[in-house]
Design brief:
Radius of gyration: 22 Å
CATH architecture of the largest domain: 3-Layer(bba) Sandwich
Number of helices: 14
Strand order of the largest sheet: 7-6-15-16-17-14-18
Strand content: 15-25%
Number of domains: 2
Structural class: alpha/beta
CATH topology of the largest domain: FAD/NAD(P)-binding domain
Distance between the termini: 29 Å
Length: about 425
């Protein structure tokens, strides 16, 4: 790739809308030289109800190898997942699937408390010790709309900000998505909702000893129990000092109003949650009874969009391709989006023109759309009971999809395929001539 040099008097100005995982990842990927990166976050970054988040090998490889975050485990309270343990409705373990991520995929599947991963990425994005200028994080900056052609972001306060590149990393209820698409694209209810809670391991050991006898909450394994179409998915965080439980429930089996559960901070009711999981083993309910804070949210996703960008603006992460958590790929696909942005803009020195920005954003879209859309569809398909799954939607089996998910090597894979395709076309043209 040939470096492009534009005016050096005015730096490359980048505005990122959203200060979550997606926005911080984009800031890390794009940091270079004298670029001015501003992250606009609508909230005050207050603590949310506890939850864990995982990154798969395709994402942790990018953090470690592409972005140089070599202290990923030591600096972030992350835990390497050793495998999956599956329990039946009677509470007996019926299968254990070891994860050989490091040997098989060259990187690990790592679990975090969401706050820990966010804090780690925030430090990397704003640190003075990394290459390029630190990103500037502005909180309480709610965006109402964007002039995509002009690169102008308008805040609800009436303030206007200008940039050469605008990135919408503002989640499933994205404000920028409408500006880019020229229409509204509403997230779709998927027929399931989820409870989420986090308990100190010491409390579990003391107040729910039978739970700790059946599932050691300090061991680095993801455990799942399924009964009557409901699932409990559980795993440790912060080195085993905390334990996360997520309960997936079909909306028709809920005892709460799922339509109200559209936020990460909606609170669930303990008694109604226990009624939902009444047919689960008694030792699981012992754990659920000890939850001090219960989050509840309706699982929604997006149908694949026909475009992610317009003019100087692009959406990434959940704003572009929100997906169900059944593949654990939501955050990982966000990291892949950020890597594509960083790589495809890496040759830009100084301030790019609008045409250059638009051309690169088209390449970002082309490199990411097919893969992200396929994982979206497979995540939706995997959430259905086996009897409801279509036979012609997804052609790969789950083990094949794991390889597809985790062997991805970044946007260079797409660049190489494009180069090979161009060479093939050139050879055919020469032969015909």
């Amino acid at each position: 790739m040939t470096a492009l040099t534009m005016s050096s008097s005015t730096p490359f100005r980048i505005i990122i809308v959203g200060g979550g995982i997606a926005g911080l990842a984009a800031a890390i990927a794009l940091r270079k030289d004298s670029r001015q990166i501003t992250i606009l976050e609508q909230s005050r970054l207050s603590a949310e109800i506890g939850a864990t988040i995982s990154l798969q090998p395709n994402a942790t490889r990018i953090l470690e190898q592409s972005w140089g975050l070599t202290d990923l485990l030591n600096g972030s309270n992350g835990t390497v997942d050793h495998g999956f343990r599956i329990y039946n409705a009677d509470g007996k373990m019926v299968n254990e699937i070891p994860l050989r991520s490091k040997t098989q995929y060259g990187a690990d599947r790592i679990m975090w408390h969401r706050e820990d991963l966010h804090a780690y990425l925030k430090k990397a994005a704003t640190s003075i010790e990394r290459d390029g200028q630190p990103a500037i994080l502005r909180t309480s900056a709610r965006v109402s709309r964007c002039d995509c052609e002009g690169g102008k972001v308008i805040l609800e306060s009436g303030e206007h900000l200008e940039a050469d590149l605008v990135i919408g990393a503002d989640g499933i209820h994205s404000a920028l998505r409408t500006s880019i698409l020229g229409r509204e694209a509403h997230p779709k209810p998927t027929g399931s909702s989820a409870y989420r809670l986090m308990l100190p391991t010491a409390i579990l050991n003391e107040r729910a000893p039978q739970f700790s006898e059946n599932i050691n909450p300090e061991e680095p394994y993801t455990s799942m129990i399924m009964a009557h179409s409901c699932r409990l998915i559980m795993g440790p965080a912060r080195g085993g000092s905390l334990y996360s439980i997520v309960g997936l429930v079909p909306d028709e089996q809920m005892n709460e109003n799922s339509d109200e559960a559209q936020s990460w901070v909606t609170k669930g009711h303990p008694e109604k949650m226990l009624e939902t999981f009444k047919d689960f083993p008694s030792w699981t309910k012992d754990a659920l009874r000890n939850a001090e804070s219960i989050g509840l949210w309706q699982l929604r996703d997006l149908d694949p969009l026909d475009k992610w960008h317009s003019g100087r603006a692009i959406i990434i992460g959940d704003a572009a391709h929100a997906m169900l958590p059944t593949q654990g790929q939501g955050a990982s696909q966000t990291i892949e989006d950020a890597e594509a942005l960083g790589t495809l803009f890496s040759h830009i020195i100084g301030r790019p023109s609008k045409d250059e920005v638009s051309s690169i954003l088209e390449d970002v879209f082309k490199s990411r759309h097919e893969r992200a859309s396929l994982i979206q569809r497979f995540s939706r398909e995997a959430a259905k009971p086996a009897t409801e799954r279509g036979s012609n939607v997804i052609k790969m089996h789950p083990d094949e999809f794991m390889d597809y998910n985790c062997t991805y090597r970044g946007v260079h894979d797409w660049e190489q395929r494009r180069s090979m395709s161009a060479i093939t076309v050139g050879l055919k043209t020469t032969a015909v001539a």
